[in-house]
Amino acid sequence: MVFSKGRKEEIKNLIISWTSPNLLTKSNSQTTKEPKETKQTQKTMKISRFEDLKVWQLANRLSLEVSELVKTFPKHEKYDLANQMRRSVRSIPSDISEGFGRHHFNDKLTFYERARASLGELRNHFQEALGNGYFGEGGYKDYSKRMNEIGYLLNRMMKNVRGARDSYENERKAKRYSSRRVTSNAKH
Questions:
Q1: Which DSSP letter does residue 53 get?
Q2: How far apart are the first and last CA of the chain?
Q3: May I ask the CATH architecture of the domain 49-187?
Q4: Exposure string for 100-117, b = 16+ CB within 10 A, e = fewer
Q5: What's residue 178's pLDDT?
Q6: Which of 11-15, 130-134, 184-188 has the highest mean pLDDT?
Q7: Residue 24: helix, strand or coil by DSSP?
């Protein structure tokens, strides 16, 4: 399979660069005295580390905060609900980072889907904790809003990976078809 240099770069950019500025941010280690970025620059910024993904940053922050929140739960929940919440919330940024490190489209999607499933599990645990009165409605709404944002960004990222995969597969099919056509015309 031979792709033109430009096409290889395009496929690579589809994989590591997301077109939505909502999925991009600069990590703290990169914040130096640089001129402010325009929206156009931000849209084409390449992401080279999972820490640069806004969805990972939000999920990681949520993980740290939920770990602190469950410390306020009653002692009898230490090994039950609190433990389940900690495990599900920790798995979200972990699966995002692991998916980011995968080089095949379907592998990436598998880990992003796991992160989304863990987010759903966490939502369920929050509903249960709210029902048990471990925190108030206001706290629940705040966490729910943040989980919705993470879910939205995860879905957008998965949509972009699927689009890159489909584009790559269509390119392969077109190349295969055109090479068969050239060989069959040469025989006649």
A1: B
A2: 25
A3: Up-down Bundle (1.20)
A4: bebeebeebbebbebbbe
A5: 78
A6: 130-134
A7: strand
- Residue 58's nearest CA partner among 136, 131, 156, 127 is 156
Tokens encoding 62: 């949520």
If you average pLDDT over residues 2-25, what whole number do you get?
A: 48
For the segment 55-83, the average pLDDT, to the nearest whole number, is 95
Question: What mean pLDDT do residues 46-62 have?
Answer: 94
Given a cut of 80, whether residue 21 has pLDDT beyond it is no
* Residue (of 28, 96, 101, 93) closest to 61 by Cα position: 93
Q: List the beta bridge partners of residue 53.
A: 24
Instruction: Tell if the pTM clears 0.85, that is, is over it.
Output: no
CA atoms 104, 109, 115, 117: torsion sign: negative
Residue with tokens 């471990």: 134
Q: Where are the alpha helices (DSSP H) in 70-136?
A: 81-101, 105-131
Q: How far apart are CA 65 and CA 137, in angstroms?
A: 17
Integer CA distances (angstroms), 97 to 55, 102, 175, 178, in order: 10, 9, 33, 38
DSSP run (H or E) holding 184: helix 137-187
Produce one character per residue of 130-143: b if its CB has 16 or more CB atoms within 10 Å, e if not.
Answer: beeebbeeeebeeb
**pLDDT on residue 37:** 47
